[in-house]
Amino acid sequence: MVSYEVQYIIFAIIGYLLGSILFAKIWGYVFTHKDITRDAKDHNPGTFNAFEVGGFWCGVVTVICDLAKGFTPVFLCGLFVDSVAHNEYLMALVMLSPVIGHILPIFYKFRGGKGIAATFGSLLGLVPDYKPLLLLAIAFIVYSLIIVIKPDFYKTIVTYVTVAIICPFLDYRLAVVIAYIAVTVLVCLRLLLSKEDRGRFSLSLIKWKIIEEKGRKEA
Asked: How many other CB atoms sit within 10 Å of the CB of residue 130?
């Protein structure tokens, strides 16, 4: 009989290996017969570039697969192991593993993407508990539509840091809090160490943007 600790680790390894599959590259080859990351400005093997460079269907299939690779190990581990064992630290490791794989993929010389879709997929694997997933989604929406932060480099960092600060004060299990904080560190380090064009930081409230646009039309 394999111990629960070993079962958690097995799912973590599966999560890392799944995370290491960069579907933007794979589906890019299928739809465009080339590595779409080479034509992208930031060369990031993520869903945004799959849509922008590979086209609509390339983007759709990529985002589904990136969500699935985060969802699968977390959901199956929760179903078969965590429902009995409840080891918060090892469950957090399982949640982290697809994101680590996407950022540091063993199949691509440890040169991966940002891990955003993989993060959403990992949180989706906690179903029927949707609260952790909604927190990250709401944070992205707020900084995209209400307190508008540009460019995406800064918006992503602020979004993850905000969530990492808030989640310890919410009624989440310890595994989720650990995973949130650890993922934030990983994603932010990935961005800060990347050669991505950071541009100029800008922040604006949607209210003032509407007033400004209205004033321009009247002028």
From this structure: 12
* CB 172 within 8 Å of CB 132: yes
Per-residue pLDDT reduced to its tens digit, 11-45: 999 999 999 999 999 999 999 988 888 877 778 88
pLDDT of residue 205: 82
CA atoms within 13 A on the CB side of 31: 20
**How does strand 202-205 pair with strand 147-150?**
antiparallel
Give which of 84, 81, 99, 97 is closest to 6, Cα–Cα. 81
Q: Which amino acid is at 38?
A: R
Yes or no: say if 151 and 103 are a contact pair by the CB < 8 Å rule. Answer: no
Model pTM score: 0.90
φ and ψ at residue 149, rounded to 5 degrees = -110, 130
Angle (CA) 16-152-52 rounded to 5° is 75
Among residues 82, 74, 89, 72, the alpha carbon closest in space to that of 4 is found at 82
Alpha carbon 17 to its chain's center? 16
Residue ranges of the chain whose pLDDT lies below 50: 219
216 vs 120: CA distance, rounded Å: 38
From CA 74, how far away is CA 87, in angstroms rounded? 13
Cα separation, 9 vs 97, whole angstroms: 10
Q: Using CB atoms within 10 A of its CB, is residue 129 exposed (0-12), middle (13-18) or buried (19+)?
A: middle
Query: What tokens appear for 179 in the block?
Result: 């995973």
Residue 174 half-sphere exposure, CB side, CA atoms within 13 Å? Answer: 6
